[in-house]
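Annotated sample (chain length 474).
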Amino acid sequence: MTQSVVVQVGQCGNQVGCRFWDLALREHSHVNKKGLYDEALSSFFRNMDSRKSNGRVCGVGGRIQHLKARAVLVDMEEGVVNEILQGPLREVFDSTQLLTDVSGSGNNWAVGHMTYGSAYREQIVDKVRKAAEHCDCLQCFFLIHSMGGGTGSGLGTRVLSLLEEEFPEVCRIVTSIYPSAEDDVITSPYNSVLAMRELTEHADCVLPVENQSLVEIVNKIKHMSHGGKTGAVIKRDSTIISGQGGLSGAEKPFDAMNNIVANLLLNITSSARFEGSLNMDLNEIAMNLVPFPRLHYLVPSLTPLYTLADVNVPTRRLDQMFSDAFSKEHQLIRADPKHSLYLACALMVRGNVQVSDLRRNIERLRPSLPFVSWNQEGWKTGLCSVPPVGHSHSLLALANNTCVKPTFMELRERFAKLYRKKAHLHHYLNVEGMEQSFFSEAITSLSSLIEEYHHLDATKLKLMPDAPRLSIAK
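Output written by the structure step:
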């Protein structure tokens, strides 16, 4: 069995990470009734013998003693990490996994990337290496961070480049939370574009998630809960925003939004944690969905968002779940993949679903989903037999699709508005090691990425067959 290490950086990264560990424990306790440390648990948790002073690790098959998350927590403020250490998850982490400072990055990518990245380089590498050494077969690093602040964007992307440097063979999957246009951090366009260059260069896969999409999904579910259709009562614990049944008590601000991202991570790792008739290896995601190294931004969508409790209301049919996964209402960024071009698509299904159901739905949906001419069969599928808590089945779709282009264009425009006036630039240029060329190189990198998606989009109009072979002149 393989293992993965989660590296959570900055306030947002640690809040999302906290929800992931809480909901992962909920999920495993729901499945693991015997209290044994099995291979499913070993993929993300170590089992420590708390009776021994040297903290000996207990092997697979024994009783659960003391679970420790395979994680590294990094933040340049103490608030969120201290909150975790004083909360119900405190036993899941120990001091060797934590790295904090007190002053924060002041919403400045340069401070996070340059100042803290240099000051804490050795400590970060040491903590990640220790986490890696506890793994028998390390398969993947999951990095969770936000793009708008200073620590998440700056130090988060510095950590990403260190992971590539120190562990070049280990897959790097990054979950990046993008700020909305109404973000309260004025410098977030700078931070996001500077971070984008690093993500494009050093990640194997990036799962972009937009704050605005999370807000809209949360509002939609809450509307259904309070004022939905008559008789359409939502089943307790079944919504994608629910944390009920986990360790944490009262819900905090942003918990509902963070639970959506935590569910994304639970579903993407389900094949690594549980049995299934068609398991999908984490390495296979990049191998099958990323035909060109820079175009590794995979748009996630989750369905169902909730389950109805009233048995008199027909449950959402399986086929409807597949249709929903391709509708814009279920995407975790504001995008409409059906009206853009697919390079490849993965479907990760959980629950009592047959391979025949999967194939039937792919065949049903295929005519309405435009794929590039050279990859018409670009589907990767996974079936995990264990459904999420509160559901009979669920689906995560990961689409390598040109629909990310408008998000990136909007980000470039917001960057340009500030950069034309050189507004706030001095805050960055006063940081040791930071030069103005970083800005021009970052915007060039983003424009080049947009252009690559644009060229692919242009082929959609023709959906050209393969280029004709050269004919030999007679």
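Annotation: The longest helix spans residues 437-462.
Annotation: The chain has 16 helices and twelve strands.
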